[in-house]
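User: Hand in any protein.

Assistant:
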Amino acid sequence: MKTSLLALLLLSTPALAFPVTVQSCNREITFDAAPTRAIANDVNLVEMMLALGLQDRMVGYTGVSGWKTLDAELRAGIAELPELSAKYPTREVLLDAEPDFFFAGWNYGMKVGGEVTPETLEPLGIKTYELTESCIHIGPKSKASMDDMYNDLLNLGMIFGVSSRARDLVAGYQSRLAELTAEVDRTTPLRVFVYDSGEETPFTAGRYAMPTALIEAAGGVNIMDDLDKSWATVAWEPVVERNPEVIVIVNYGDVTAEQKIAFLEANPAFASIDAVRNDRYVVLEYVEATPGPRNIRAVEKLVQGFWGK
């Protein structure tokens, strides 16, 4: 009996390892096949998909232009994809696109008790994978770690049947991170404050936000490491009292990094802060300060800003 060319090709092609089960926050999700109509929310999650070469498995993205902007590199990567919603998508927006997968996170496209959650999307045939860093909003808390980003890439690799690609990518990031931080002096970590936004009261990164992990990787310590939140508003008084040696500015939105620095330097209340007195600022773009492939570039910027290396 003759064997068809298609049968020969199938026999010579390694089968993808499905079904696969991955952990997403406090849930286990099983995929019988790789998604083919995915949507990702926010610039950093979109970039994870791009880093894995998954744009051809996507039908669009959400939550970018209403909050942030796409740089040229990211814009080119998703030029063929529509933005389905400028901010968080509604269920109707998602349903209209007929996706089979939604990559989002808590406060990255979903809100606790909101209309778009894994539980509300599952009956509609949409499986949801949650950003690891965001899991603290619904379950046990663990301090932010570079492993959060690696975990998401590896899980996405399993979900989409590109595990080898994901492992190679993560290994490359780990190698580059080790190289960048090899000579970092960790005996006396620099005191660092993350300034996201706000004038009357600053919005900053706490213990569970990605900048804490980035700062520690670069040889610093987040002065708000004892803040039992990811991102939150605090008073200026403890910032002044804890006297950061470096201030990390998160750059996005209508108020530029330059304007944020000008505000700090014009306010007499901040004149005694070491970082302000010594003009020591490191600017991170939003996509660098949130979990994603550009975290490695962020650590490189921080090492340079902290140690001049």
